[in-house]
């Protein structure tokens, strides 16, 4: 791709210069009705950008970044581990027991998955490539293939480390209405006025009856 850019750039520069190669370069770029050279150049540029290929390279695009090399190495180790632990079983043909794959390849797959998640976090900040977008298509496709094999084909699972916090937060949210109504009930009960009937003075008629009774 770098050689392609260099060749196209040299032709484009020749068109803009008043030299002997001007007519030749102009005929290469615009002689045909489809302008195939320009069309191909735009196609390769759009494909390169859509695949986020620059995110797999170093800032100067001299080669793969260290993180990409590390990821691809773990990816190859994971596939090799899957293959070595299949025990001669055919994939996708019949439902088989892949317990050996899940047990022996768990550590390699976990490292690959953790590295991919870390690359995603770093890539949002620019990472080694300096392009804060998606990871390059090679890394994303490799991870998608591995996850599909791990979860769908081999029916393996990776324990989620966030299970306990999720359960705790969910339980707290479920108990919030109970706590709210209980506190509201207790608070209203404390403010409830207790009516005390005042002692009334006995009427004069009652006093006369009592006096006549004892007389």
From TrEMBL:
Pfam families: OSTMP1. The keyword Magnesium does not apply. One of its GO terms (cellular component) is cytosol. Keywords: Membrane, Transmembrane, Transmembrane helix. The chain crosses the membrane at residues 164-186. It comes from the Eukaryota. The keyword Protease does not apply. InterPro entries: Osteopetrosis-assoc_TM_1 (IPR019172). This is Osteopetrosis-associated transmembrane protein 1.
